[in-house]
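Journal club prep — side note

Before the paper discussion, L.F. wants everyone to see what a predicted structure for a comparable chain looks like in token form. Sequence:
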Amino acid sequence: MSRLVEFTTDDGGTVVVEVASSAGSLVTRGGDHAGDSSGVFARAQQTFERALAHVRPAVQGVIDELLSLENRPDEVSVEFGIDLHAEAGAFIASASTASNFKVRLTWNKPANPSAAS
């Protein structure tokens, strides 16, 4: 079963996210959101930005490594899923025991400009 979790933002706003239920301790707002009387609406224990900050080092590491290639690509695209949890924050989602990054590198120009002459 999933539940709705409200994350506050650094600027004072809110973001409501559907997350998988967990046995952790949530601050539950039983039924006071949009007529929900099921008690599945909860408030996260950290801000949305702080939750996402948990994945930043991994994402930056992937980008840094790809851009440090000797034959640097003109474009780098990295696709991955983010799992949000009220207690744990955010982490890179995986359907198995290994995390998955879908990477696309694009070169628009010849590798050796003098070879194009």
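L.F.'s comment for the group: Residues 23-39 have pLDDT under 50 and may be disordered. Keep this in mind when we get to the figures.
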